[in-house]
Amino acid sequence: MRDIGAVRLYRPSDEAQALRVLSSAGAHPVIVAGATDLCAQFNEGLQVSDLVSLSRVDGYRDIRATDGGVTIGAGCTHALGAHDPVLAALCPDLQIAWRSVAAGILRVRAWATIGGNLMARKPRYEMSILLTALAASLRFCTTTGPSCIAAEDLWSGPAPGQGFLWQVEVPTRQLVALRYDRSLRPLMTLATSCRLVADGVRARAVIATQELQPQVLDLDLVESCAAYVRDARDHAIEAFSALPTDFSDGQSSNDYLRRVGAVLLRRHLESLAHV
Amino acid sequence: MCKGEQDIDLTCIVNGQPLEIRVRSGLTLFELIRENLGLSGTKLACSRAVCGACTVLVDGQPAASCATFAFQVDHAKVVTIEGVQGEGGLHPIQEAFRRHSAFQCGYCSPGMVLLAKALLDSEPRPSRARVTEWMSSNICRCTGYSLIIDAVLDAAEVLRREPADV
After folding, report:
1. Is the ipTM reported for this complex over the cut 0.90?
2. How confident is the model at residue A128 (pLDDT cuts 50, 70, 90)?
3. Residue A254 — φ and ψ, nearest 5°?
4. Of B115, B162, B157, which is closest to residue B137 (Cα–Cα)?
5. What is the DSSP string of B52-114?
6. Taking a C-beta distance cutoff of 8 angstroms, is the pair A209, A186 a contact?
7. Interface test with A, best of B2, B23, B114 (most A CBs within 10 A)
8. Cβ–Cβ under 8 Å, residues A70 and A86
9. Which residues lie across from A85 on neighbouring strands?
10. Closest residue in B to A50 (Cα–Cα)
């Protein structure tokens, strides 16, 4: 275990104080919530001079119903999210999927947070896959004001300014269902949502491998879900063929991983047809 | 404005005893327990919250002391393996581990016993499947899982008859 050394610890009690701390602390203050991932990073060589703990900030771990969805505080732990009654009522499929994150590691589930899972920006971490499939948004508090990005832009968009992830906003209106398959993790994981739109049904599949950031497949099921599902295998293969991504890694070929993805997607489409 | 602190005053309860101590802000719970308090029963293995060797209980919940900062247990109740034994001797879970030879090399045992305590404190009648699922959170490199599961089920039965005093 590596000695973390001398650090300054800040424990703000509200958002405004947290932002003042972030703008006044050392060059690269690091946010700490559950600390499970951060401590692992320390052991891998991370060095920091300033830690900012947000555990005293009111509302940082709350789950609330909103008009059209649900917000999840960035400090919400996996254990809290997995049993929260508001989430159970508004987005039960997300809750079911959340229960499988760090499944079996009680220590991690009790302490690790949704915010830490996202901000670690590791492809194998699961919340960005699930939240991208749900077209969720990430709301940051920054020194220049609130900032909101799509979950998928966590990887590709510009990093929000100096600040911290405050909450996740999940739109549940028109959401029909979410499916999640982690049986082949970390080789490949897939989340697929199904949402009603003006001209039919739209599915969004998000696929991630151990090394690749989540890839998004938006599928218009315009004619009818039943017809689409009848040809689900062909659609799934076609969708994966259209992706420019080279999935290959040191162990598996691009063709193999595309075939795996197509099988997982077909299963999801077939499952969603019964909803 | 909150100030940055290189050292913090920590107040908590460890094994039933009030503790007030000034520690480095970057101190882990594991370091606090072993180095500052001299409680060497807590073991370190993976250093990344995965294996469970360093498990302690914080407010009754299992925590990886290697991946928890000491400041995170401010005003909390911490139980290490040294706090499991009651005045009357070994805790029924420890006795059950002994009866079932579930200690083997013993390195994972403190974490396993505390993990089992967290389960049986909240669920006095777990099924075998539940015990298996719960205890799979910790790793035993001797692969003595069956013995451990037998011991936890046995302890549950004993505790239902004779609740422990800790």
Report:
1. no
2. very high
3. -60, -45
4. B115
5. -TTEEEETTEEEEGGGSBGGGGTT-EEE-GGGT-BTTBS-HHHHHHHHTT--TT-SSHHHHHH
6. yes
7. B2
8. yes
9. none
10. B4
* Neighbour-count burial for B136-166, b at 16+ CB within 10 Å, e otherwise: bbbbbeeebbebbbbbbbbbbebbeeeebee
| Cross-sheet strand order for the sheet of A175-181 | A175-181, A189-197, A200-208, A215-221
Indicate the SS3 state at residue A174.
coil
Q: Which of B43, B44, B48 is the best substitution to test chain A (most A C-beta atoms within 10 A)?
A: B48
Q: Which residue has the tokens 């991932």?
A: A37
> Over 90: is that where the pLDDT of A138 sits?
yes
pTM confidence score: 0.90
Residues of A in contact with B70 (CB under 8 A): none
Distance CA A16, CA A3 (A): 32
Tell me if chain A has a CB within 8 Å of the CB of B69.
yes
Cα–Cα distance, B56 to B81 (Å, whole number): 7
The rounded Cα B137 to chain-centroid distance in angstroms is: 13
| A160, pLDDT greater than 80 | no
Token pair of A79, please? 């254990």
Closest CA–CA distance from residue A201 to any residue of chain B (Å): 38
d(CA A41, CA A137): 26
User: From residue A37, how far is each of A9, A122, A261 by CA, in Å?
Assistant: 17, 11, 28
pLDDT in tens, B89-111: 999 999 999 999 999 899 999 99
